[in-house]
Amino acid sequence: MERRRQARGERRMAEILDAAADAFAELGYEKASTNAIAARAGISPGSLYQFFPSKEAVARALADRFVADMRTAHASAFGGADVAAMDLGELLDRVVDPLVAFNLANPGFKALFARPDMPAALAESSQPIQAAMLGQVESILGARVPGLSPDGRARSARVLVRIFQAMTPLVTAAPEEERPAEIAELKRVLGGYLTSLSA
């Protein structure tokens, strides 16, 4: 009986986090109230407060879930491949596709993490994964453009990550039938920058 109640509670928490992700994506973090989150989850605000004492607590739990999911996407994008041996198109497919898929599956991610006024606790939860991503991109640059200095690799990695971050909203906002063309443009821009580093 206790196990069933615990499973029900975990399901309810997941439903609340799903509703919060939708609310943050549609309304923005500031405008998404606990009442709006509860309504989307199909529960009363009082029921929401049984699981989370505040909107900030919901956001922290959602941030933790996003970070865990992002780690999985990073493992698919960067794990165990000989990036120096891949042709550029294959490399871009391997890296870009899982990261785009993560952003498509998690529209609330940007609403939570791309805020200029992001609370320090949320910023801290994403820093290790952001640092790991920069490190992975630097490793790719080291393998593919060995002539770059360490400072040049770090700078170029930041540029590549920022290009990806800047263009991702164009991809996620595109109608589904146009999305492959938008992804191709993202890869073209990243590929052009990578190619210019070798010139």
UniProtKB/TrEMBL annotation:
<dbReference type="GO" id="GO:0000976">
    <property type="term" value="F:transcription cis-regulatory region binding"/>
</dbReference>
<dbReference type="InterPro" id="IPR023772">
    <property type="entry name" value="DNA-bd_HTH_TetR-type_CS"/>
</dbReference>
<dbReference type="InterPro" id="IPR041669">
    <property type="entry name" value="TetR_C_15"/>
</dbReference>
<dbReference type="Pfam" id="PF00440">
    <property type="entry name" value="TetR_N"/>
</dbReference>
<dbReference type="InterPro" id="IPR050109">
    <property type="entry name" value="HTH-type_TetR-like_transc_reg"/>
</dbReference>
<dbReference type="GO" id="GO:0003700">
    <property type="term" value="F:DNA-binding transcription factor activity"/>
</dbReference>
<keyword id="KW-0238">DNA-binding</keyword>
<dbReference type="Pfam" id="PF17918">
    <property type="entry name" value="TetR_C_15"/>
</dbReference>
<feature type="domain" description="HTH tetR-type">
    <location>
        <begin position="10"/>
        <end position="70"/>
    </location>
</feature>
<dbReference type="InterPro" id="IPR001647">
    <property type="entry name" value="HTH_TetR"/>
</dbReference>
<feature type="DNA-binding region" description="H-T-H motif">
    <location>
        <begin position="33"/>
        <end position="52"/>
    </location>
</feature>
<protein>
    <submittedName>
        <fullName>TetR/AcrR family transcriptional regulator</fullName>
    </submittedName>
</protein>
<dbReference type="InterPro" id="IPR009057">
    <property type="entry name" value="Homeodomain-like_sf"/>
</dbReference>
